[in-house]
Write a structure and sequence with these properties.
This protein has 16 helices and 12 strands. It is of the alpha+beta class and 452 residues long. The longest helix has 31 residues.
Amino acid sequence: DIHDIGKNIAAVVMACNGYAIRDLGVMVEAQRIVDEAQAWGAQCICLSGLITPSLEEMIRVCRELERRGLTIPVLIGGATTSELHTAVKIAPVYGGTVVHSPDAASNNRILASLLGPDAAAYAASVREAQQRLRDEHERDRRRRSLVSLTEARRTPPAGRTPVEPLHAGRMVFPDFDIADAEPFIDWNFFFPAWGLKGRYPEIFDHPERGAEARKLYDDARALLARIRDEKLLTLQGVAGIFRARREGDDLLLTDRRGRDVRLPMLRNQTRGEEHRSLVDFIAPEGDWAGCFALTAGIGLRELTERLRGEGDDYSAMLAKLLADRLTEAFAEAVHAFVRRQMWGYEEGGLPTPERIVRGEYRGRRMAFGYPATPDHSLKREIFDLLGVEATTSMRLTEGWMIDPGEALCGLMLADADYFTVGAVDAEQTADYARRRGRSEEEIRRLLPNNTI
């Protein structure tokens, strides 16, 4: 994956426990991973992924290992991975052992079992557990109750009155002030990334983790002040509001030249749930929708390389975690700006940062890759609509990852609710493939957690 915070933390934890680590970096081809593992005599290969397209790359690595007749154990980790997906999709393509690791702290326990005197028994137990998961998954799949796409589409759209913006079009943020984003940082997500579970600020009072959490927070605050004062990171982004309408399950945005940009959406089909699609929150005509792409990662690569060169791996990892939190905070700040200054539907006093972090405001920000809009490939249309690559340092890779990795891209709606698309059936998969202009196989690779 292009985003390597978790991988770096895992590498440091393993190195501290006596393992020699060969770090191949990010976005590495399967063939090179296997070549390096063979040449180095690796005892284990660790793969990390943040977004769903990375899952297909993990399968490719295991297929290449199988093709060469190797049996090097593989550890799977990262936000987009799961024990179930590892068992159902990855492990079956490889004769070697494939283990899902839930967090960096678990790696040492897993490695000790994989490489210890009882390795064969451990590998057998992993395979047995994975077979049970596959059997259970198959039973669930057969029991899973989905309504037909026709029935799901009978869901009435959300009743709403379109709000005309004060200022339509796009707004470029070439160098957003870190001080204006800082109040929107949600520290609740900072500590778990370091392996410390607990709510902020209550975690400081924890009898075992409190002291460590306080030190981590103080160090992070000090580094954040340095980043802000020395301008070590640049926050860049683009946001825009465009004419919008719905057509079936497609969202259509009209660009500055009057051309339609079509964004096909998926619809929930799970029986007993509300069969929502994002288009339900858009009127058939005369509506508006916002979109955005932004990053707090400009300059991060240079900063972390400098810190590592000074022998300060700890601060390098802190900087990455802070860039992640700053990206989310930047998104909240931009969303508030759009609601109040561009769209104008939010009036009165600005909600406190605490209320904004809790989502206590009108409107919703839907990032691609999340439950309501799981298709990462839609980022391409938004990047082109906003002219992101012409106005910022962000780039979109062929695998729809944003470089730098500390970035977000998505939609903003004045009236919407969060929901989960969940599993979709073969009919909707085929329908979405047709609307998206891709093969069904491509859609299944893009959306492995939705297509069944």
